[in-house]
Amino acid sequence: GSLRAPARLGIFVLFFLGVLAAYGYAALEQALRPRFRVLMAVGVCSMLALEYWVVPLRLVPYANEPAPLYVWLAQQPRGVVAEFPMPSPAALPGPDARYAYLSTFHWMPTVNGYSGFYPQSYLERLHRLADFPDETATTRLWGDGVTYVIVHPREYPDGQGESILEALGTNLSYVRLGTFESDRGEAVVFRLR
Asked: Containing domain of residue 182, as a range?
């Protein structure tokens, strides 16, 4: 058992720090002359305003309509999906957040994941799939019950995507089902035998 989000316990720490800060403020206020009390109140209010300053987040635009890849996938027999490239454990979440969003267009289970917490089993999966499509990765995909393997070749650096597609084309464990337009260019779908 793991606690899904241990950071949530920090709310109690912050609460009690706030109480201690209030006691500290009251003690300082009693020790200062009235003129300095006003300056301290202005300073504390300024620091609070700075603390709660809201800076707009840079949002990533996503289409509300599925790409042809996901329309096609939604019409296929139900199966487990694995999308590549997968992130390295040192660069989480990588594309998994995008894959999780796009899975809402086909609603099939995926081995890709996105959460505030990554269980050890998921990190081990990423290690075993790091050299995809080698035999270790293929065995892991079989073990996870994967049916559909989607490769986004343009997402790989330095043309690695094309060499992965070539390796999959000669591997008898994979059957090429088609090439489709996805949210990030072309994607190739394979069925794992």
From this structure: 68-192
Kindly state whether residue 59 falls inside one of the protein's structural domains. no
* Whether residue 80 is found in the same domain as residue 160: yes
Q: Which amino acid is at 20?
A: L
Determine the longest span between alpha carbons in the chain, in angstroms. Answer: 84
**Order of strands across the sheet that contains 185-192:** 80-84, 146-151, 185-192, 174-182
Q: What's the burial of 4, exposed, middle or buried (CB within 10 Å: 0-12/13-18/19+)?
A: exposed
Asked whether residue 169 falls in the same domain as residue 119, the answer is yes
The reply to whether 16 and 42 lie within a common domain is yes
List, for residues 44-80, the tens digit of each pLDDT value: 999 999 999 999 988 888 778 999 999 999 999 999 9
Per-residue pLDDT tens over the stretch 8-51: 888 899 999 999 999 999 999 999 888 899 999 999 999 999 99
